[in-house]
Specification:
Elements lengths: L1 H24 L5 H42 L3 E5 L7 H9 L4 E16 L2 E10 L1 H7 L6 E3 L11 E5 H7 L6 E12 L2 E15 L4 H4 L2 E5 H7 L8 E6 L5 H12 L5 E5 H4 L1 H39 L1 H9 L4 H32 L1 H12 L20 H18 L1 H8 L3 H5 L3
Parallel strand pairs: 3-8, 5-7
Antiparallel strand pairs: 1-9, 1-10, 2-3, 2-6, 2-9, 4-7, 5-8, 6-7
Helix pairs in contact: 1-12, 2-10, 2-12, 2-14, 10-12, 10-14, 10-15, 12-14, 12-15
Length: about 425
């Protein structure tokens, strides 16, 4: 008995699938129905493709922003009050012993004014120990000229961001003047401290904020210029997993503040606005583009309503031959679902193709029309990155299919309620 029921069910399923697919690809007397079906497919495909591309670009921005920021910044920073840290050697040694901490590096940071010829530009001046700095940041890999090791104590060398050097007109080997705002008192008044530095290197991170506003000098030279003595501004730490930074920062902060007044911050706090903005934009774009898919999917309602009207006689004949209301409903659900599936698959294919090749497509369009979508002096990132995450693709495909399937329910239900006698009365 059970086998008989299963065989009947399988036959019904084959029948419904066959008729549903036949209705999808059959030529109709009313060409307007075919036009709306095609429009629905194209709309779903465009919406799915746009969603995949936009989310991939937003993921790319998030990844690129994190990579570039952490190329200059650090995972964790330990600082003292008034931007001074006296016992930094002990703090660095204690931090290095902690689990997940890979390296540490002291630094001095202050503001300064750089001038060369007629060019004058304000900048953040960072004093570093080149060997230690190379272990906590990726600046060494972004050097356009020179090396971090070219910063030697007592030689007063300076490494400039590429855009900062361009702004003041300085090149490799030029002598630039650095003015420290902390002045010294003289009989004639307060005079700013001034020191001449030689440009020994240029770096380019790819973020205008750093390339146009950061200068590196040796930490000992910075200590002399800013009269820090044996003190530093803080200690930078590198972790084995940057996403553990908030938890480790909390633990270090608890440990240190038992004996003194320290501030421990991680990269998510220092640059929270960037990542929150990208995350919020990603969510908003997902909602907006989902509405596009929804509008296209609900065009299926119009298609099926007209298809049901067009096939009233066929429905009545199938009912008289023993087709159940459930079978009629499944036929039109299959027809509408096929429209959604085809549109989703086509959209996913082109969306993935564009997302994987956006690094080639955008430069081609910019070169063809002589435009630049992301001006370097306006945006933090001047190119258009893409990071295709397959979980996003799966989510979009499932969402599109569910919307398409949901759109088929009402017309299919109406089709199942057609009375065969009423439908055939005037045929």
């Amino acid at each position: 008995m059970l086998q008989t029921i299963k065989s009947i069910f399988n036959k019904l399923a084959v029948f419904e699938l066959f008729v549903g697919m036949r209705y999808t690809r059959a030529k109709r007397k009313n060409h307007f129905i075919s036009f709306i079906s095609l429009t629905s497919m194209i709309g779903i495909a465009l919406g799915v493709a746009a969603l995949i591309v936009v989310l991939s670009v937003m993921n790319g921005f998030q990844k690129e922003l994190r990579t570039r920021i952490l190329g200059v910044a650090s995972h964790l920073e330990i600082t003292g009050s008034n931007n001074q840290l006296a016992d930094w050697q002990n703090i660095a040694a204690a931090a290095n012993k902690r689990e997940h901490v890979l390296a540490s590096a002291p630094y001095i940071t202050a503001q300064g004014m750089l001038s060369y010829g007629q060019g004058v530009q304000g900048a953040i001046v960072r004093g570093i120990l080149p060997a230690a700095e190379d272990k906590v940041a990726d600046l060494g890999s972004h050097m356009k000229a020179g090396h971090l090791s070219d910063l030697r104590p007592g030689e007063f060398g300076i490494i400039l961001g590429a855009d900062l050097a361009f702004a003041i007109g300085a090149q490799m080997g030029d002598k630039v003047v650095l003015l420290a705002p902390q002045g010294q008192f003289t009989p004639t008044g307060v005079v700013p401290r001034i020191k001449q530095f030689t440009v020994v290197g240029l770096f380019q991170i790819g973020m205008y904020e750093y390339d146009a506003g950061l200068a590196l000098i040796h930490m000992e030279d910075a200590a002399k210029l800013y009269r820090m003595g044996d003190k530093v501004s803080g200690v930078r730490l590198k972790l084995d997993d940057l996403f553990n930074a908030p938890a480790i920062a909390t633990k270090i902060n608890t440990q240190l503040n038992q004996s003194g007044s320290y501030y421990v911050t991680d990269w998510t706090q220092q640059h929270a606005n960037f990542f929150r903005a990208v995350q919020m934009e990603k969510r908003v774009m997902f909602i907006i583009l989902t509405l596009i898919v929804a509008v296209a999917a609900f065009n299926i309602v119009s298609t099926l309503v007209m298809a049901v009207t067009d096939k009233r006689a066929d429905i009545a004949i199938m009912r008289t031959f023993g087709a159940s209301p459930r079978s009629i409903m499944m036929i039109f659900i299959i027809q509408g679902a096929l429209i959604g599936i085809i549109g989703t698959v086509v959209g996913a294919f082109f969306g993935i193709l564009i997302a994987l090749n956006i690094g080639t497509i955008i430069p081609f369009i910019e070169g063809l029309f002589h435009v630049q979508f992301l001006a370097k002096d306006v945006y933090y990132i001047s190119d258009l990155p893409s990071d295709l995450i397959w979980s996003d693709v799966i989510t979009i495909v499932i969402m599109s299919f569910i919307l398409s399937l949901f759109a088929t329910l009402y017309p299919s239900w109406k089709a199942s309620k057609i009375n065969p006698a009423e439908a055939l009365r005037y045929e």
